[in-house]
Amino acid sequence: MPLSLKGRHFLTLKDFTEQEIYYLLDLAIQLKAKKRAGIRGNLLQGKNIALLFEKSSTRTRCAFTVACIDEGGHAEYLGKNDIHLGGKEDVKDTARVLGRMFDGIEYRGFKQSFVEELAAYAGVPVWNGLTDTYHPTQILADFLTLQENFGTNLQGLRLVYAGDGRNNMANSLMIGSAKLGLHFVICSPSTLFPERELYAECQAMAAKTGGSISLIEDPNEAVVGAHAIYTDVWASMGEEAQQAEREALLRPYQVNAQLMKATKRNDTIFLHCLPAYKEKEVTEEVFESRASKVFDEAENRLHSIKAVIVATIGNL
Fold first, then answer.
1. Catalytic residue among 138, 246, 254, 303
2. Would the pTM of this model clear 0.90, i.e. be above it?
3. 68 labelled catalytic
4. How far apart are CA 237 and CA 86, in angstroms?
5. Which of 139, 204, 221, 224 could be joined to 176 by an S-S link, Cβ 3.0–4.6 Å?
6. Is 227 annotated as a binding residue?
7. What is the tens place of the pLDDT at every residue in 143-167?
8. What are the tens digits of pLDDT across the range 170-179?
9. What residue ranges in the chain does DSSP mark as E strands?
10. Is 1 domain-assigned?
């Protein structure tokens, strides 16, 4: 029986098998080729999706909107001042209202519990566009970019994340890498290592797929053999007050030419989920170098998000 994700939520990659993640990546490749060929589709014809945003966004908002339009659907943006989510109105009540009007709901905000409650009550697929805990749609774009540079089978690739090792990006990259058998390294101060429970969970997943999860404090040791070095802002949205403290702590983890050279490979690529603070977590030199694939990665948000929408509510 053909694999189908129809009607499924997309809250974290923990909920998906290796086969299902590759299915989404394969679909993203097909949809990207279709887009590049200038072919407008109808896979979302007659579908309406709600975009709930508590946090600001460039790539996620644009990707969901364009993805829906490209395949004949309609996307309705609802910002934090447009609805009463979690304030005047309970999350579950908002979910039950929107679920009767829309075919799918995207949520980008702070609490993972909010997107989970939306999923529990909406009656339609709910997609996580980012929470403080996870950012699963970004990982699909990252892995699609890795495939474009190193081949479609990602097992055995060494992916090093340098920076804040317990933020939503580190968490999500760790889960995705464990699911697909990558050798994933979090390179950060021990005070910013990921939550022990999630780390142990990912180690157990990686043991089944031939991958590994490592925590290393020394940047020069961590990046040896890396196919890709990934970083993110040193203070996430909502943590701006800690910016100066984080800069002092994470300065040794800046991705610069010296760190790229320390991989001892000539094909290492640089990845960043954007937006980037240049000369902070990454130097302008690396960001603008040939090794930088950040804009391929940003474009791939569109194709991978389109794959998620089409797979879960599309006319396949």
1. 138
2. yes
3. no
4. 19
5. 139
6. no
7. 999 999 999 999 999 999 999 999 9
8. 999 999 999 9
9. 48-53, 74-79, 104-108, 126-130, 158-162, 183-187, 212-216, 228-231, 269-272
10. no
